[in-house]
Design goal:
Length: 400
């Protein structure tokens, strides 16, 4: 099946909240990488021998059929191949998985089909194959426009190779995005401003700009604990965040989420399904899902270890190790946690319907008085620019 999108949906139209229909997406996890980056705690594994992709296709198809049995009648708005490194998949493998999605659900005519790719020249050689398989949006992990920093991040590409991959992707896919990580060890505000301004000239319709997080049990965490890696302090991190907002907004890519920037209308529809607390089926090792069944919304997660996941799917027809109903309270908490990341904010009435409890006006008023949240006359609550760096504690206050 080839899904056509020649232009971003409603390109140029402002993002409108859609509480009545937050959407249904499918996430496919490809858990392999050529090497493990020292900052990364995603479910990614390095294998010395070739991956049996046909065996994975069969298992992914079995999982898709399993999730579809619990979600009859849904229409898929987006498919996302994430990793790990999905650009290590053969295009035929991607095609087979897209076909399996379409065999289990109906798919919107202009569904968004994204694949995450690493920007090496070898992977760029597969881009045409992914496009022919039905991928219409490519998300590239550029990470830095500085060769020394790319090396320090353990990346297998340099700046020139990444820029070439961005150029090739833009010539093949109707929609592209790339990721950068900032607040890197030793990074000054001046250096980041220059790097981001350069990135803006390369950017198409969408950019993900992540602040470096020191994740537990990564090599970076060990170095940081040993005092061998210094990251920006709170003040500098705040200045870098502010510079990011200013430069991206000035270049026509305002933030629509904490770390995601897009031209109006070019937001990632897949990620909007998560943040608007829609439904998504997650398949593959370590994938998460949220499905609404007649018994209520369920939180799902699969076995993380790739070969154990394969074995389980082959014997049980699914790789789930968690499939738990969410209480109304948990749904309310998750809804706030996801929705307040978005510039469009959350709808108070939907929170109350999901959680069965009212939001405490006193908490909203206190946060509004400090300039961290704002509420409009239709009951939408948003975290302001000043509040964004404090998002976690704001969510905790509102959820209390
Ligand atoms: C699934 S990951 C990587 C996809 C792809 N394998 C790659 O490396 O380009 C998606 C994105 O998360 C971001 N990321 C991963 N670890 C991070 C960390 N510790 N701090 C901030 N961003 C991180 C990177 O920008 C990365 O591109
Ligand atoms: S950052 Fe990407 S390439 Fe590096 S280990 Fe994580 S998933 Fe793999």
């Amino acid at each position: 099946m080839t899904i056509e999108t020649s232009a971003p949906p409603e390109a140029g139209a402002p993002l409108r909240p859609n509480d009545a229909d937050p959407g249904f997406g499918v996430y496919v996890h490809w858990p392999f990488c050529l090497a493990k980056c020292p900052y990364c705690d995603f479910n990614s594994h390095v294998r010395a021998t070739p991956i049996d992709e046909e065996r994975f296709v069969a298992a992914l198809s079995a999982e898709l059929a399993h999730r579809a049995a619990a979600t009859p009648g849904r229409t898929v708005r987006s498919i996302f191949f994430g990793g790990g490194t999905p650009s290590l998949m053969r295009p035929q493998t991607v095609q087979s998985v897209i076909d399996a999605v379409a065999a289990n659900w109906s798919v919107e005519a202009d569904a968004e089909v994204t694949l995450e790719a690493n920007p090496t020249s070898v992977e760029a050689g597969r881009f045409r194959g992914y496009r022919a398989a039905g991928v219409n949006r490519l998300s590239l992990g550029v990470q830095a426009l500085d060769d020394a920093d790319l090396k320090a991040l353990g990346r297998r590409h340099d700046v020139a190779e990444a820029i070439e991959a961005v150029r090739i992707a833009a010539s093949i896919f109707p929609r592209t995005s790339f990721d950068l990580i900032y607040a890197r060890p030793g990074q000054s505000e001046k250096a980041w401003r220059a790097e981001l301004s350069r990135a803006m000239k390369l950017a198409g319709e969408h950019l993900s700009l992540y602040q470096l997080t020191i994740e537990p049990e990564t090599i970076f965490e060990g170095l940081w604990r040993a005092g061998k890696l210094t990251i920006p302090d709170e003040e500098l991190a705040r200045a870098l965040f502010d510079a990011t907002q200013e430069i991206a907004e000035g270049a026509g890519l305002p933030a629509y989420e904490v770390s995601n920037h897009a031209r109006p209308g070019a937001e990632s529809r897949h990620n909007l399904v998560y943040w608007r607390y829609g439904e998504y089926a997650g398949v593959g090792p370590g994938a998460h899902g949220r499905l609404v069944t007649p018994e209520g919304r369920r939180a799902q997660a699969t076995e993380k270890h790739p070969e154990m996941w394969l074995t389980q799917v082959e014997s049980e027809g699914h790789g789930l190790v968690e499939n738990a109903p969410l209480t109304a309270e948990e749904q309310g908490d998750e809804f706030l946690l996801m929705g307040l990341r978005l510039r469009e904010g959350v709808d108070r009435a939907r929170f109350e319907a999901l959680s069965g409890r009212p939001l405490q006006q006193r908490h909203i008023d206190d946060l509004a008085a400090e300039g961290f949240v704002e509420e409009d006359d239709r009951g939408r609550i948003r975290v302001t620019h000043a509040g964004m760096p404090l998002l976690d504690s704001i969510v905790a206050d509102l959820a209390a």
